[in-house]
Specification:
Layout lengths: L20 E3 L9 E5 L1 H6 L7 H8 L12 E3 L3 E3 L2 E3 L9 E6 L5 E7 L14 E2 H16 L6 E12 L8 E10 L5 H9 L3 H15 L8 H22 L1 E2 L21 E2 L23 H16 L5 H8 L2 H17 L6 H18 L5 H7 L7 H5 L10 H11 L24 H14 L3 H17 L5
Antiparallel strand pairs: 1-3, 2-9, 4-5, 6-7, 7-10, 8-10, 9-10, 11-12
Length: about 475
């Protein structure tokens, strides 16, 4: 089937061989029906000209794209809630293709819900339609808020009924395709280390270095770790600035490029709450909102432990020790980005970060997370609209005065962004769980996809208005 002229296949991970993945067959779905297609993302990798029939063929029946060798389920291990599990791997997904985007980045097309693999552990390898809808919404919102993230390229309903113990059943089935810079997980290295295969660790180091961190010298595993530490620090800082709670920060859910993916029962904060958790089964709060930096650092230490097979321990420790400073630096930058102001230096930027968190903490339920950034976007340029807006009664008191002083020290960054019609609205675009459930109920009860499509359109409007770059 024809594809766009700029389509550029490069199945790099496939070339590593069967030590790292297994060839698999996709499930034979009875009635694949297209529910979501990310046209902007598709165009970036040369797939924008696919007709709907071609799209369904490639992403509902998984006929390989030209130049691609066919799907493979990737092998990996991982710590799940800090308990090691050697029985993981792609159990309901596979790597379908690898392409170059318009900037030359290597991009993975990875699936979720595409059927059983050798790593399914007796499960059906399927994804609920509700799970697919939730991932499309979360990925879109994260991108709009400037968070490095995979994007939902395609959502196909498959025509199957699934039995699940944690939601009403039977429930509808779906298959998702996500577009991501890499699906090489920390757990990919953990499997090789578990098997004592220093040769595989060395191969992975070179693969990841050459394709994703080419500034690192050949064979420099500690240098590669430094880059992954920096990317991971940036990622978790952007999560915090977005008020995002990942939910399942296991080592198999973090990758070498520092992108959000496989975030399970995610949530966005309704208001400042450090102990807020996304997963009902996270009973100890291990992955609570404010503990996410700790969780990411712990996972990085596991990756470093794998690299000891090929690198000097002292150099790896030195690389790990850079996480704390990187995270604080990235958190300051993330809050400046969200508030739409320029840097004034470390001390002033830290004052603004501290004042923002103090204001969110003091106002509690009276101030949701997202309105702070919406009302005061570009700093003093927004003063009049904020003080006349629906939260004018909130913007008072000592904590607010300290915040406003710290904010007004900083110059607006591209204040012309306020001219976008999105900023004439009284409320920001948010992604709170009540709305997510309402969107799903319309689909489940009436097969009404209008709220889903309308929400995605509003998120896209917010993305264009904010102009935040999460890459």
């Amino acid at each position: 089937m024809p594809v766009a002229a700029d389509y550029d296949p490069e199945p790099a991970f496939f070339a590593l061989g069967d030590d790292y993945a297994d060839a698999v067959r996709p499930a034979d779905f009875p009635e694949p029906t297209l529910r979501w297609r990310h046209d902007r993302a598709a165009a970036e990798v040369g797939l924008g000209s696919l007709t709907e029939a071609e799209w369904v063929d490639h992403f509902g029946r998984f006929t390989p794209l030209p130049g691609q060798p066919g799907p493979i389920a990737m092998r990996y291990h991982g710590h799940q809630f800090r308990t090691y599990n050697p029985d993981l791997g792609d159990g309901r997904g596979f790597l379908a293709a690898q392409l170059r985007d318009q900037t030359g980045r290597l991009m993975d097309l990875g699936t979720k819900g595409s059927g059983q693999t050798p790593w399914s552990r007796g499960a059906d390898g399927r994804l609920t339609l509700k799970g697919g809808v939730r991932e499309v919404l979360a990925a879109s919102m994260l991108e709009a808020l400037g968070v490095p993230t995979s994007r939902a390229l395609s959502l196909m309903e498959t025509g199957e009924a699934l039995e699940r113990h944690d939601e009403p059943s039977p429930t509808r089935s779906a298959v998702l395709v996500r577009l991501s810079h890499s699906h090489v997980r920390f757990g990919t290295f953990q499997r090789a280390a578990y098997l004592g295969r220093a040769d595989q660790i060395g191969t992975l180091v070179e693969h990841v270095r050459a394709l994703y961190h080419p500034g690192v010298a050949e064979g420099d595993a500690a240098g590669l770790l430094r880059e992954i530490v920096a990317a991971s620090a940036r990622l978790v800082a952007r999560w915090v600035a977005a008020g995002f709670v990942h939910g399942v920060l296991n080592t198999d859910n973090l990758n070498v490029t520092g992108e959000s993916f496989d975030y399970g029962p995610w949530r966005f904060l309704p208001h400042y709450e450090p102990g807020f958790t996304a997963a009902y089964f996270d009973q100890t709060g291990l992955y609570a909102f404010a503990r996410q930096p700790e969780a990411v650092f712990w996972n990085l230490t596991q990756l470093a432990g794998c690299l000891k097979l090929v690198a000097d321990t002292e150099l790896l420790v030195e690389a790990l020790n850079g996480f704390g400073q990187s995270y604080i630096r990235e958190l300051r930058a993330a809050f400046l980005m969200r508030l739409g102001v320029t840097s004034l230096g470390e001390a002033a930027d830290q004052r603004l970060l501290d004042a923002s968190l103090a204001l969110l903490r003091e106002k509690g339920d009276d101030l949701r997370w997202e309105p702070l950034f919406f009302d005061w976007f570009t700093g003093f340029s927004s003063s009049e609209r904020a003080l006349r807006g629906p939260r004018r009664a909130v913007w008072q008191g000592e904590a607010f005065d300290a915040f406003r002083f710290a904010l007004f020290e900083h110059e607006p960054d591209r204040p012309e962004r306020l001219e976008h019609p999105a900023f004439a609205r009284a409320e920001p675009e948010e992604m709170l769980i009540g709305e997510v459930e309402s969107i799903w109920e319309a689909i489940a009860d009436r097969d009404d996809w209008a709220p889903f499509q309308e929400k995605l359109a509003r998120i896209e409007t917010a993305r264009v208005a904010y102009q935040l770059d999460g890459r």
